[in-house]
């Protein structure tokens, strides 16, 4: 096939036309530039307002096949492919300041700026522009690549939700399509479609996933390596939970013996998480690089591995676009109509024909010979013209044609059974039922082979689709409740840890089989920050490209930056040979899955650019428990590098618990400047889910931060420095410009974050209303919170009393409460939100009640309430090292000045002389006490 690259090279051997076509998505413009004299040609660089050509991806059909396109690369990044609509975003700032101008192009090269109006403010916000300000993080212009997606809360929702959200928020023609569609289904089949009857939801909104940057300040980045572009993107775009995120990506070291094994693991994880697939990008590749192209890897690209279903073919028609592709006339059927049975057709009454809901069409999948055979089969069978006229009827079934379909040409008297495959499931705007996405026909069964009545019914189709998209069927909760009443085991949820684990194992086995790999070879694959090293590597190093850096490169000796630091900056520590660790093999109840594990002694000296640390205290936070249960968004990585045999070794990987911890440096690796870190320094671990419930470990210097003024802090104060106090401080500073005397209201005031909020607010002259649960020792609790600086303390029961509103108005002098902090959720937060004033902000950072947050619409309409989510881990990811260092310094100053202290603590110590069994019993007892609320204190773990 003659490609655009072949044609342009043949036309212009100098390559000028080809380069122009890569910059401008317009061959006419590229041709005009080519025809200009060489000295008059404009500089080839992206221009704001002119679409840049979108790269054409190769299609990977297995892990090995996908990586074969990129074998010359030393490192490849597997980027999550989000199921959305492409958006190339052009932003320009006028010299006089003011609101930035935004132009958005879709994949079809259409100007979709008005269609995407709902995300304009999101774009301005993530670039640092507020209101009409012209003082964001760009001075002149930027061109960004993103995917428009639907968010449900902070989760990326199904693709089909986008359409309705666009139509209800767009300006112009597409925004006029807001009339309600008449749905044509009922619930007689037991197929509950409640959540599919409307795309509207208080929690849903359009958002963006940013994945590339093409130009910055009129400087082309097209020929800048991918990894450098990504680093620039991360400094320009600041994610906003539930509206804008950066695409997740995962590293693959191409210098190891079998890099496809790592891709196998990454892809299996994505399938288990119901993601669409991956885009593979070489670290040094240019944008639209023909030598190192992007490679799209989806399960439906693997022959025989797409979502496959058997459906009933009931009609056929001619579609102009498909006919043009096939170069056939209107006498050839190109498009075929498929449906599902309403009920089981095999048990329909003698005088009652089965009913079929016709819900989608398919035009692809068959080769030309197969298409000719199908046309011949239909024309030789009994059929009726559509629309069906008086005097004609279908003898074997009744049907309902989904209103959004173009009418067929004929309807078959005797339907056919067809096997189809596709890329997941979606929903059309006027239809309640899921349909196969990108359906392709694989096989047509003749009547003698299989009966058409073997096709799917609506209920089965719905259940298959729900499983594919990671959604529990609508009646599962009721079904589970009934089973529980009779002591019948319930089936695992669509996103349960056990089901996810089974899917991962199934797909890893499938992918290995495709590439001819054994399980044994797969175990040698690199699998994260604590994974075993591949055999051809040094046994002292384990590689992980997902590292979260807190320290600047200037902290390492310049002589070592190229030869040591550059590779190790992206790699984890050596094999972690320790004294003791608290581990678990699978997600579950901490009271039953946690266990203590004795490990070999720590090896010294540490690798270059790393340090040996001994943990002094490691907090047990509520989030740590959620991680163990498998319900927390930040997931740790299993390690099989702890021991030589048994648990923690090859074949029996484990998770190490803990996310926060204070440690002391016991040895310094080569390449670390002594003026930055020295033996005896206190450090806190800053990389997410590093595993801090252990005695000792090696760790890269970029994953720790030195505690300033450590000699003036207690171990407990320093150990609790990285999560709760920063959360409190940032929520008080990042959302509302509060002045001395302003008011803040919060629930969960007796939590560790709540107590930090009280103290930091008091230090800044802010006044607080603090909400807690009613309890027998309420007066004692009120007194302790007031000693910390709480202005007033109320219970949730107090809020239900109408007289409290007057009391609060008296306290505030009628001044609006402009900031509310929520860690509870449920009705308690609904009550609290009603006391917020005009233009207030509600910031949610937890949901201890495990109940959904429900807010009255009137608060948004009449009070202009803004609701945010906050996650301290995300804050660390999106802020510079200078900002993180400044935050820590501020908090330490508060502690030294006695303005901030830790909550009450209890240290749980596991001694060297305790057996693993005794230590396991102790840690499980701690988890039992925490689950029953018997501590009432901050629990810190100390492993000797």
UniProtKB/TrEMBL annotation:
Catalysis: reaction(s): a 2,3-saturated acyl-[ACP] + NADP(+) = a (2E)-enoyl-[ACP] + NADPH + H(+)
Keyword NADP: yes
Enzyme class, broadest EC rank: oxidoreductase
GO biological process: DNA recombination; DNA repair; fatty acid biosynthetic process
EC number: 1.3.1.104
UniProt-listed Pfam families: ADH_zinc_N, DNA_ligase_A_M
Recorded GO MF terms: ATP binding; DNA ligase (ATP) activity; enoyl-[acyl-carrier-protein] reductase (NADPH) activity
GO CC term (a single one): mitochondrion
Annotated segments matching region Disordered: 515-535
All copies of domain ATP-dependent DNA ligase family profile, residue ranges: 208-342
PROSITE patterns in the record: DNA_LIGASE_A1 (PS00697), DNA_LIGASE_A2 (PS00333), DNA_LIGASE_A3 (PS50160)
Keywords: Fatty acid biosynthesis, Fatty acid metabolism, Lipid biosynthesis, Lipid metabolism, Mitochondrion, NADP, Oxidoreductase, Transit peptide
Subcellular location, record wording: Mitochondrion
Annotated family: Belongs to the zinc-containing alcohol dehydrogenase family. Quinone oxidoreductase subfamily.
Protein name: enoyl-[acyl-carrier-protein] reductase
Organism lineage: Eukaryota, Fungi, Dikarya, Basidiomycota, Agaricomycotina
């Amino acid at each position: 096939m003659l490609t655009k690259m072949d044609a342009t090279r043949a036309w212009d051997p100098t390559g000028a036309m080809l380069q122009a076509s890569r910059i401008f998505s317009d061959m006419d413009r590229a041709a005009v530039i080519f025809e200009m004299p060489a000295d008059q040609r404009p500089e080839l660089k992206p221009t704001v307002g002119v679409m840049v050509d979108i790269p054409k991806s190769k299609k990977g059909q297995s892990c090995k096949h996908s990586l074969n396109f990129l074998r010359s690369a030393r490192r490849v990044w597997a980027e999550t492919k989000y199921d959305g609509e492409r958006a190339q975003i052009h932003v320009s700032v006028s010299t006089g300041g003011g609101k930035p101008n935004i132009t958005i192009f879709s994949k079809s090269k259409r100007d979709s700026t008005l269609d995407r109006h709902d995300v304009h403010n999101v774009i301005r916000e993530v670039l640092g522009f507020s209101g009409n300000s012209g003082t964001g993080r760009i001075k002149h212009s930027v061109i960004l690549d993103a995917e428009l997606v639907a968010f449900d809360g902070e989760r990326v929702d199904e693709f089909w939700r986008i359409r309705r959200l666009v139509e209800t928020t767009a300006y112009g023609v597409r925004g006029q399509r807001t009339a309600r569609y008449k749905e044509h289904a009922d619930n007689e089949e037991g197929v509950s479609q409640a959540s599919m009857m409307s795309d509207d939801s208080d929690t849903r909104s359009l958002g963006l996933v940013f994945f590339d940057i093409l130009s910055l300040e009129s400087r082309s980045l097209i020929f800048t390596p991918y990894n450098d572009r990504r680093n620039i993107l991360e400094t320009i775009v600041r994610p906003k939970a539930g509206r804008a995120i950066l695409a997740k990506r995962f590293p693959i070291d191409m210098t190891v013996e079998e890099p496809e094994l790592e891709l196998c693991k990454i892809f299996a994880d994505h399938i288990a998480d119901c993601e669409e697939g991956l885009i593979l990008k070489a670290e040094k590749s240019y944008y639209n690089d023909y030598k190192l192209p992007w490679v799209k890897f989806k399960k439906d690209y693997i022959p025989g591995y797409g979502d496959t279903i058997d459906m009933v073919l009931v009609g056929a028609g001619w579609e102009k676009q498909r006919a043009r592709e096939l170069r056939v006339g209107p006498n050839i059927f190109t498009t075929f109509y498929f449906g599902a049975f309403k009920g089981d057709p095999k048990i329909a009454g003698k005088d009652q024909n089965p009913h079929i809901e016709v819900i989608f069409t398919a035009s692809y999948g068959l080769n030309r010979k197969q298409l000719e055979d199908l046309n011949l089969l239909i024309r030789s069978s009994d059929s009726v013209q559509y629309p069906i006229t008086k005097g004609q009827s279908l003898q074997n079934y009744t049907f309902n044609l989904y209103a959004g379909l173009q009418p067929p040409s004929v309807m078959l008297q005797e339907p056919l059974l067809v096997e189809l495959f596709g890329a997941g499931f979606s929903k059309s705007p006027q239809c309640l039922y899921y349909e196969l996405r990108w359906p392709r026909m694989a096989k047509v069964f003749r009547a003698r082979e299989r009966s058409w009545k073997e096709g799917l019914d609506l209920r089965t189709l719905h259940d298959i689709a729900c499983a594919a998209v990671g959604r529990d069927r609508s009646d599962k909760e009721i079904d589970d409740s009934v089973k529980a009443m009779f002591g019948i085991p319930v089936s695992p949820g669509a996103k349960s840890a056990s089901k996810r684990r089974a899917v991962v194992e199934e797909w890893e086995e499938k992918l290995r089989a495709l590439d001819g790999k054994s399980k044994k070879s797969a175990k040698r694959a690199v699998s994260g920050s604590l994974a075993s090293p591949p055999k051809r590597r040094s046994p002292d190093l384990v590689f992980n490209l997902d590292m979260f850096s807190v320290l600047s490169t200037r902290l390492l000796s310049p002589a070592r930056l190229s030869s040591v630091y550059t590779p190790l900056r992206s790699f984890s520590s050596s094999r972690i040979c320790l004294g003791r660790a608290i581990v678990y093999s699978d997600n579950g109840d901490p009271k039953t899955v946690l266990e203590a594990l004795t490990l070999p002694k720590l090896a010294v000296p540490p690798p270059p650019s790393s340090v040996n640390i001994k943990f002094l205290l490691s907090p047990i936070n509520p989030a740590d428990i959620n991680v163990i249960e498998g319900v927390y968004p930040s997931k740790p990585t299993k390690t099989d590098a702890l021991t030589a045999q048994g648990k923690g070794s090859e074949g029996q990987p484990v998770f190490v618990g803990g996310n926060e911890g204070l440690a002391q440096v016991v040895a310094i690796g080569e390449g670390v400047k002594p003026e930055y870190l020295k033996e005896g320094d206190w450090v806190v671990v800053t990389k997410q889910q590093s595993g801090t419930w252990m005695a000792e470990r090696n760790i890269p210097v970029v994953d720790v931060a030195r505690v300033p003024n450590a000699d003036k802090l207690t171990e407990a104060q320093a150990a609790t420095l990285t999560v709760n106090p920063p959360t409190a401080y940032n929520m008080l500073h990042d959302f509302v410009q509060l002045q001395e005397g302003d008011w803040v209201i919060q629930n969960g005031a007796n939590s560790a974050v709540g107590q930090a909020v009280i103290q930091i607010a008091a230090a800044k002259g802010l006044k607080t209303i603090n909400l807690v649960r009613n309890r027998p020792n309420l007066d004692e609790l009120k007194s302790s919170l007031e000693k910390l600086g709480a202005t007033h303390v109320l219970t949730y029961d107090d809020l239900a009393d109408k007289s409290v509103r007057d009391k609060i108005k008296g306290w505030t002098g009628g001044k609006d409460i402009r900031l509310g902090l929520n860690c509870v959720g449920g009705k308690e937060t609904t009550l609290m939100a009603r006391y917020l004033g005009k233009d207030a902000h509600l910031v949610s950072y937890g949901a201890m009640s495990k109940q959904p947050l429900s807010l009255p619409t009137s608060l948004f309409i009449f009070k202009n309430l803004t609701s945010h989510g906050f996650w301290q881990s995300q804050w660390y990811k999106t802020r510079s090292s200078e900002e993180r260092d400044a935050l820590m310094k501020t908090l330490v100053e508060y502690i030294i000045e006695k303005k901030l202290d830790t909550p009450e603590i209890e240290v749980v110590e596991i001694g060297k002389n305790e057996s693993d069994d005794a230590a396991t019993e102790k840690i499980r007892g701690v988890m039992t006490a925490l689950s029953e609320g018997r501590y009432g204190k901050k629990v810190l773990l100390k492993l000797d």
